[in-house]
Amino acid sequence: MTAYVERLAQASRENESLLCVGLDPEPHRLPQHLRGLPAHEAVLAFNKELIDATCDLVAAYKPNLAFYEALGPEGMETLRATVRHVPNGVPVIGDAKRGDIDNTMRLYATALFDVYGFDAVTASPYLGRDALLPFLDRADRGTYILCRTSNPGAADIAELDVGGDPLYLRVAERVPTWTSHANIGLVVGATAPTQLARVRAVAAGVPILLPGVGAQGGDLEASVAAGVDQTGDGLLVVVARQVMYASSGLRFAEDARTAAREIRDRINAARVTAIDARRGR
């Protein structure tokens, strides 16, 4: 296993969790007592309290870079400080969705892995294998490839017919073969549990990053049942707003912890049910 996969598996075991909390704060939605600070300072204070309150309940964190880029240079420093604040045993996935020619992707790999310190990132497959190699060649880091995303318009492209199969299924079959390192995963949305099950069927041992639960309307239990592998692993369930904005008062971090624990426990219950169903119990 790669260093990223090992760190993720260890965090998942120690925290008994398949939960990945998204760190996507919007300044206007932060608790009132933080809004008097400059936006980047408020975001960092919010992130630190949120991480401190939930780090023993999660398998990973996933900040989306757009929420930090929108704050300018100070926002990007806030992102670096956020990553540094996460305990060493918990991986951090940079949701960057990068996709460009190989020369540019080498620089993206340096930025995301070495400058910002992410353990894994998200990327697009649509420029082909050579474009992804600068990420995939980093055997110590992980890359989750967009496959069948959670947004309403995902079907516009992902479900185009390609020789009798939808495009997302071809991506699921082909992309994991692009590297000999066990450091590649797929992004599949919880809003499409049927498609998720098809991806799991053709990519049995490939890790899946699952956005779309909660605010986007994805069914948690159905998605866990469709997405876990034969051992009940291989899945990271991303939840952001349900945890981040569990409340908006001085107790926001405590309430975020309560929300994270409840969601983790629901995931674990669904995981057990899925394993039992596959074993015919």
Describe the structure.
It is a single chain. The chain is globular. The model has no long low-confidence stretch (mean pLDDT 95). The chain has one domain (3-278): Aldolase class I (TIM Barrel), CATH 3.20.20. The chain has helices at 3-15, 39-54, 66-69, 73-85, 102-115, 129-136, 155-158, 167-174, 193-202, 220-227, 241-244, 252-278, and strands at 19-22, 60-62, 93-98, 120-123, 142-148, 161-162, 165-166, 184-188, 208-210, 235-239. Helices cover 46% and strands 15% of the residues. The protein has an eight-stranded parallel sheet. Helix 9 (193-202) links the parallel strand 8 (184-188) and strand 9. It is built from twelve helices and ten strands. With 281 residues, it is of the alpha/beta class.
Low-confidence stretches are none
Strand content: 5-15%
CATH level-3 fold name? TIM Barrel
Mean of residue pLDDT values: 95
Amino- and carboxy-terminal Cα gap: 31 Å
Radius of gyration: 18 Å
Quaternary organization: single chain
CATH architecture: Alpha-Beta Barrel
Give the structural class.
Answer: alpha/beta
The CATH homologous superfamily name equals Aldolase class I
Biggest sheet: strand arrangement: 2-1-10-9-8-5-4-3
How would a textbook summarize the main sheet? Answer: 8 strands, parallel
- The percentage helix is 40-55%
Order of helices and strands: HEHEHHEHEHEHEEHEHEHEHH
